[in-house]
Amino acid sequence: MTNKQRILDRFLSYVKIDTQSDPGSDSTPSTKKQWALANLLVDELREMGMQDVNIDEHAYVMATLPANVAHKVPVIGFVSHFDTTPDFSGKNVNPQIIENYDGGDIILNKEKNITLSPEYFEDLAQYKGQTIITTDGTTLLGADDKAGIAEIMTAMQYLLDNPQIEHGEIKICFTPDEEIGRGAHKFDVQKFGAEWAYTMDGSQIGELEYENFNAASAVVKVTGKSVHPGYAKDNMINSLYIAQDFISSLPRLETPEHTEGRQGFFHLSNMKGDVEESELHYIIRDHDKKHFEARKKMILDLGEEICTQYERDCVHIEIKDQYSNMKEKVEPVKHIVDLAEKAMKAVGVKPIIKPIRGGTDGAQLSYMGLPCPNIFAGGHNFHGKYEYVPVESMQKAAEVIVKLAQLTSDQYK
Ligand SMILES: [Zn+2]
Predict the structure, then answer these.
(1) Spelled out in words, what is the top-level CATH class assigned to the domain 4-211+326-411?
(2) Low-confidence residues of the chain, pLDDT below 50?
(3) Residue 144, annotated as binding a ligand
(4) Which of 36, 43, 171, 276 is most buried by its number of CB atoms within 10 A?
């Protein structure tokens, strides 16, 4: 059993450092302040006795825990990100510690009347009796993903302190800029040297994910012909009406607000225009590769159809692929998911295996040659002031890491 106070202290020390990333910046890390936590982690890893501790020019922190068994064991890795989302302030985080949670409302900020209530956030109720870390209602907490970092650090410390637990070589990596979609961009998979890895970046206790969306964006440009409205008969072509035809020709119920689970969608996220020219911005999402391709084709076909209907070249569409479902890369090595499931059960955690309706860094890493399912880090309500994490969930995540190290070794004995 990992020590509760130690993982809590670790977590609290990390969330106090502001590491917000910035999509407007081209550098890596996108913000200078991310270096502060990256450098602290390097110091701590060296101090605890990890090997090959290094940080590269983009602030990727890597370290090795050498094997303590003689037989050959595949090298596995654990990955977390230290940046927080640009969507909400992560400055001056002032965590509140609610011990022995009574199951009722938690007042985050009396002055501003901000309450974390199980009436709105039903998941809270299951943590009655546990120690909950919340915000003070003015910032996010940063459990996404500093909980993941605290868990990996705690697990490594635990393995170092308990050499009787047998394990193969373990690699760990902490990345910048995950929240702006670039956590994997400068990740040196070759140098990392693991056969597979796990991101510790999921939400509630038990989550285990290896399926995510296939994703693309589509920009639809519609051109019309602007003429003085008083003299427009048989001459004006209003791009807004053509755009309207386009929008209403796509299936109205295949949208984010009408879909769940593995159902895909077209999402009209933005539109702008005038008589002369209109622009529609869509994102296209589907877990199934075939359905995903069919969706892209449907958009392109519709563009052509409308051109035919209006007898002019009035619709131009640009589709860009964004990311792919990691299932394609993980399914052939499904034993790495089974192993995680087994590790959870071994430490008394009920696995919740479900498809992600989004993407993860693990998906990108999987396509870069490092199959990488996602394991819970324990937090809830990411990216906002209602974010919280039970310490017991963090402890369990650390135990899952320890158990995974042990099981991997056992399996190759
Ligand atoms: Zn995250």
Answers:
(1) alpha beta
(2) none
(3) yes
(4) 171
